[in-house]
């Protein structure tokens, strides 16, 4: 059994659920695989209507689902409401795609012959997601996968089983058959063992994974052994560049939200704030003041961020603090590490000893040679460095190999276009934070942040469908492509005379 507790009050049990073994997950995968063909026979517009039902049910249960997110993983309630809205938006977008799973009619090079293309479902999809966005990110996989005619086995984070079971119940209430969307709670070891068995047996036709680069590399390699390309949405070390002509107050608002919202536990969280050397000291001082005065604590109150998702995530944050070097300046708080009565934070909201809360930390003076420069910290820790030219800023923003999200604050169009062209990230924000996504825009990264696959919008359909081509020859004779061409003549000796 796995016990899920409230990270704001670890004595409060949110749910106790059975953990599945690899053998049990494999049984679930077989069940979903066997049911998939029946689901695919439903007309796509009908599947779209079911997705519409799910969206309306999520919308009508928005507050209850958001409260459960806040209680189970500690996200500030206003952010949790926004996350649930993302599920609604995703359903609203894809209900229409049920009527737009278009193929094409393609002209043939031969007479009396027609060419067509069709989107076909892949089969059974194994989805593995993290606990930082327990509803929004899963919906990016589940909704388009179901809409396209696939069955889904979802393995959510073991730290958010109550949210996972609630979201699954909503899908089922909306009309998704229980053997078409099946949810299992398991640890990483059992999950990976089931993944390997399912790929070998052929009951997994696509793998979708959101999580760390380290684990994503293993999943991608295992899928590749079975001639599959996994959909990988991995970590980030997301840069934010502040130019001298920027609206500084706006940039600082963006840095505060991107760096410390959800306690820095987003794949799109701000990694390093790169400030032009001419404004470095003044901007850093203002950023430090904002962080020092930000409210931290009870996520149901008006705070910047609440607890870490669990003790595991706090331990990970403490490990990253050990990477601070002597040439760095640690700012933003009078202390570091866990917030407790013995290690207090000014203005803390609530009782720190009940939960797993961490001090926000700014590490200034970061350089390209530092371990923190190239490490995704995934906690309330933002590094800060300086640059002299935009070319240098782009080099610093790309040098660690991650390529998920990025941002630049400037009012000069030349800076905008040079940054967009030079940055390796899959997502670019201009005068906005590194965090934030809309349901109809592609989401995903490159390099260490992913294998180029994209979620959301029409682009994710390429992850959950395969193109099928058909040629229909009604000439009543064998026509051979590239051989039986219609002869076209021209005059090779023509010369234009003026």
From TrEMBL:
Keyword ATP-binding belongs to the record: no
Query: Which named protein is this?
Result: aldehyde dehydrogenase (NAD(+))
Q: How does it assemble?
A: Homotetramer.
Keyword Oxidoreductase attached: yes
Q: What InterPro entries would the database entry show?
A: Ald_DH/histidinol_DH (IPR016161), Ald_DH_C (IPR016163), Ald_DH_CS_GLU (IPR029510), Ald_DH_N (IPR016162), Aldehyde_DH_dom (IPR015590), ALDH7A1-like (IPR044638)
Species: Candidatus Nanopelagicus limnae
Q: Where is the active site?
A: 233
List the Gene Ontology MF annotations in alphabetical order: aldehyde dehydrogenase (NAD+) activity
Q: Which terms are listed as keywords in the entry?
A: NAD, Oxidoreductase
């Amino acid at each position: 059994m796995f016990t899920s507790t409230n990270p704001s009050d670890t004595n409060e049990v949110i749910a106790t659920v059975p953990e599945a073994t690899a053998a049990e997950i494999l049984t679930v995968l077989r069940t979903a695989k066997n049911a998939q063909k029946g689901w695919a026979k439903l007309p796509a517009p009908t599947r779209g209507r079911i997705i519409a039902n799910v969206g309306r049910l999520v919308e009508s249960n928005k507050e209850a689902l958001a409260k459960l997110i806040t209680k189970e993983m500690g996200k500030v309630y206003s952010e949790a409401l926004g996350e649930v809205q993302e599920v609604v938006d995703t359903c609203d977008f894809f209900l229409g795609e049920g009527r737009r799973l278009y193929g094409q009619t393609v002209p043939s090079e031969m007479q009396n012959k027609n060419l067509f293309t069709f989107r076909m479902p892949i089969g059974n999809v194994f989805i593995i997601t993290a606990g930082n966005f327990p509803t929004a990110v899963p919906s990016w996989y589940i909704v388009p996968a179901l809409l396209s005619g696939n069955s889904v086995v979802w393995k959510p984070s073991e730290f958010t089983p109550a949210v996972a079971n609630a979201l699954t119940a909503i899908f089922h209430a909306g009309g998704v058959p229980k053997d078409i969307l099946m949810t299992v709670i398991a640890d990483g070891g059992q999950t990976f063992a089931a993944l390997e068995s399912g790929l070998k047996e052929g009951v997994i036709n696509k793998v979708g994974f959101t999580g760390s680069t380290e684990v994503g590399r293993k999943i991608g390699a295992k899928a590749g052994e079975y001639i599959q390309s996994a959909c990988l949405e991995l970590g980030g070390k997301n840069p934010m560049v502040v130019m001298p002509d920027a609206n500084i107050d706006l940039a600082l608002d963006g840095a505060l939200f991107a760096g410390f919202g959800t306690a820095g536990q987003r794949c799109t969280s701000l990694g390093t704030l790169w400030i032009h050397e001419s404004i470095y000291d003044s901007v850093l001082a203002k950023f430090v003041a904002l962080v020092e005065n930000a409210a931290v604590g009870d996520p149901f109150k008006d705070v910047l961020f609440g607890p870490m998702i669990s003790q595991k995530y706090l331990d990970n944050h403490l490990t990253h603090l050990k990477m601070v070097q002597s040439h760095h300046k640690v700012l933003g708080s009078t202390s570091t590490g866990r917030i407790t009565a013995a290690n207090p934070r000014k203005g803390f909201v609530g009782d720190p000893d009940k939960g797993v809360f961490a001090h926000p930390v700014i590490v200034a003076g970061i350089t390209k040679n530092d371990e923190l420069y190239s490490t995704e910290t995934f906690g309330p820790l933002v590094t800060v460095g300086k640059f002299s030219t935009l070319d240098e800023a782009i080099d610093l923003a790309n040098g660690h190999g991650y390529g998920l999200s990025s941002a630049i604050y400037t009012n000069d169009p030349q800076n905008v276009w040079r940054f967009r062209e030079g940055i390796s990230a899959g997502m670019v924000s201009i005068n906005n934070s590194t965090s934030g996504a809309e349901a109809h825009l592609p989401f995903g990264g490159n390099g260490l942040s992913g294998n180029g696959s994209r979620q959301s919008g029409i682009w994710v359909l390429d992850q959950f469908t395969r193109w099928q081509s058909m040629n229909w020859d009604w000439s009543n004779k064998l026509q051979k492509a590239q051989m039986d061409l219609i002869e076209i003549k021209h005059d090779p000796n023509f010369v234009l005379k003026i």
